[in-house]
Design brief:
InterPro entries: ACT-like_dom_sf, Ser/Thr_Dehydratase, Ser/Thr_deHydtase_PyrdxlP-BS, TD_ACT-like, TD_ACT-like_sf, Thr_deHydtase_biosynth, TrpB-like_PALP, TrpB-like_PALP_sf. The chain is α/β, with parallel strands linked by helices. The protein contains 20 helices and 18 strands.
Length: 505
């Protein structure tokens, strides 16, 4: 199988449109990690991602009859832009079906390359269903984003370049994983020529379809997929990629959204390139691998797979960067409610630590509850030491550093408490983001329960995040959640979350 794929990769047609991207040394990251870290700059492609390789190679293998029918794909981003450009260069009609939640920057980029864009549905599956209907109606030729041998071969040309650009020993190559086309192509080529090199897949922890498939030795469809890293938000690894991955991928590492945000900053500091979250995914995995294994003095390669991100998202990414680097602790601390208390609290923290955030609202005449961010060293030991130091000084402390409710919502709420007889239940939602989406969300929420709290903030992402308080009479909670299940928004009950209990209850 490897020989078959290596031949296809060597024969792949990509350079009519794709560039041979540089392999850049990440000097700052290399010094920090005590390894030579290299970044393959696929963000420098004409469509700002590696996807142009697979899309063009697939189209180059089509017959004249297939091209004459026109090509179609369902995509929310990078594959759409790659196919649109490939079709324009070849003079082929292209239709791209995109979910309505697709950020406008990506829609306009596809249209600018000459493709017809159809917005349909609120998720990829709905867009794909419509694309398949159009194929039946008009006879278009479907170009898949990853589950195809010619697409895999096109992506595999990344490996040809890396091995030629870096002939010295390589310990491991870290590859972002969505549907699996890129890692399958790289694994096939590298393991055939240099089997000693480790191929390590990196997935978002809430979209780890390859990790689960390898554990169960079969393809599995995830019940839910996280949407922070849109470029790898895939529920099931591709059938063809899995044939390669199950035999030739050495390991899969999962990372959090905060760790991706930190890697976006790392890439910027070393290359001045602005990666999208999925583009920084493999560097986040590389850092985690070094931390977990203690690997030193080796060559490690990761791939910046794309730079198609909304400018509006950068604020949210920047907010989460220090948490991803483990350089900030988020704490709920009780202090006496009298003048000078905050000054005394800062004295306990000491001059070597910086207070990065402080949120407070008067609630009780004796005790104040503060939401505070404190700069710490990038290790759990330093955070633990800080918490212990505060407890020994008599301050009750709750660690909220890994609390999603606290980081997404509580830090932006000015305060205010509910009366004890309010019967409030708290729910956190995700809903497809587009113009009018917030009003649609409120309409779907219904009017059977009074809204006692509401927090929404646009992050420039495909999905909006809302915190809602509902006044629910005793015993009516099962009816509320039965209703919420019907409206099909992802939600979490947060009434018992300590961040809510400490600051809003």
């Amino acid at each position: 199988m490897l020989e078959h794929y290596v031949k296809k990769i060597l024969q792949a047609r990509v350079y009519d449109v794709a560039l041979e991207t540089p392999l850049s040394e990440a000097r700052f990251m290399s010094k920090r990690l005590n390894n030579q870290v290299w970044i393959k700059r696929e963000d420098l492609q004409p469509v700002y991602s590696f996807k142009i390789r697979g899309a063009y190679n697939k189209m180059a293998q089509l017959t004249e009859a297939e091209k004459a029918k026109g090509v179609i794909a369902a995509s929310a981003g990078n594959h759409a832009q790659g196919l649109a450009m490939a079709a324009k260069v070849m003079g082929v009609k292209a239709v791209i079906v995109m979910p309505r939640i697709t950020p406008d920057i990506k829609v306009q980029a596809v249209r600018a390359r000459g493709a017809r864009v159809i917005l349909k549905g609120d998720a990829f599956d709905e867009a794909l269903e419509h694309a398949l209907e159009l194929i039946k109606e008009h006879g278009y030729t479907y170009v898949p984003p990853y589950d195809d041998p010619d697409v895999i071969a096109g992506q595999g040309t990344v490996a040809i370049e890396m091995l030629r650009q870096h002939p010295d020993p390589i310990h491991a190559i870290f590859v972002p994983v969505g549907g699996g086309g890129l890692i399958a192509g790289i694994a096939a080529y590298v393991k055939y020529l240099r089997p000693e090199i480790k191929i390590i897949g990196v997935e978002a922890e809430d979209a780890a379809c390859l990790k689960v498939a390898l554990e169960k030795n079969k393809r599995v469809t995830l019940d839910q997929v996280g949407i922070f890293a849109e470029g790898v938000a895939v529920a099931q690894i591709g059938k063809e990629p899995f044939k390669i991955c199950k035999n030739y991928v050495d390991q899969v590492i999962t990372v959090t959204s905060d760790e991706m945000c930190a890697a976006v900053k790392d890439i910027f500091e070393d290359t001045r390139g602005v990666a999208e979250p999925s583009g920084a995914l493999s560097l986040a995995g590389l850092k985690k691998y070094v931390e977990q294994t203690g690997t030193k003095d080796t060559n490690l390669i990761c791939i910046n797979s794309g730079a198609n991100t909304n400018f509006e998202r950068l604020q949210h990414i920047a907010e989460r960067t220090e948490l991803g680097e483990k350089r900030e602790a988020i704490l709920a601390v009780g202090i006496p409610e009298h003048p000078g208390s905050f000054k005394n609290f800062c004295k306990i923290i000491g001059r070597r630590r910086m207070v990065t955030e402080f949120n407070y609202r008067y609630a009780d005449p004796k005790n104040a509850q503060i939401y505070v961010g404190v700069q710490v060293k990038p290790s759990s030991e330093d955070r633990s030491e800080l918490i212990q130091q505060l407890k020994e000084a008599g301050y009750p402390v709750v660690d909220l550093t890994d609390n999603e409710l606290a980081k997404l919502h509580i830090r932006h709420l000015g305060g205010g408490r509910t009366p004890s007889d309010c019967n409030e239940e708290i729910y956190r939602f995700e809903f497809p983001e587009r113009p009018g989406a917030l009003l649609n969300f409120l309409n779907n929420l219904g009017q059977d329960w009074n809204i006692s709290l509401f927090h929404y903030r646009n992050h420039g992402a495909a999905y909006g995040r809302v915190l809602v308080g509902l006044q629910v009479p005793n015993g009516d909670r099962p009816n509320v959640e039965a209703y919420l299940d019907k409206i099909s928004y992802r939600y979490w009950r947060e009434s018992d979350n300590p961040a809510y209990q400490l600051f809003l209850r």
